[in-house]
Amino acid sequence: MPDAIGPRSVTIPALPEQVRVARTFLAGILGSSHQHLDVALLLATELVTNSLRHSGSAVPGGLVTVTVMAERHAVRVEVTDTSADGVPVLPVADAGEAEGSRGMRLVDALAARWGYQRGGGLATTWFELRQD
Q1: Is the pLDDT of residue 93 over 70?
Q2: Domains in the chain, number
Q3: What does the pLDDT read at residue 42?
Q4: Cα–Cα distance, 48 to 52 (Å, whole number)
Q5: What are phi and psi of 41, to 5 degrees?
Q6: Which domain holds residue 90?
Q7: pTM of the predicted model as reported, rounded to 2 decimal places
Q8: Residue 74 and residue 131 in contact, taking contact as beta carbons nearer than 8 Å
């Protein structure tokens, strides 16, 4: 892998079967030997799935863009969609919770940093992985 890979993006239809396309794109950018590959794939899957379910892109014809920036020891992944009314939240742990409410807790637990920004009718949720 080169020392740094500048922003590279893919825009996909907001359809469940397109999560695989986002994962394949990310894996192709990072390469099989990148130390953060597995965690980056897991967290990107969570963010893309959230976009498909909860964003303004979750309508016929909706689109989601995945952007990756990487270095040898760090990765930043951004998922941009059409902004909805809500914002990403970290749900409170509950032993009886539904299976579908754990994604943002995974992001919070495994990412070095994460956040979101909104503007211009778009919302971007991002995470960073770094070597400690």
Answers
A1: no
A2: 1
A3: 97
A4: 6
A5: -65, -45
A6: 4-130
A7: 0.88
A8: yes
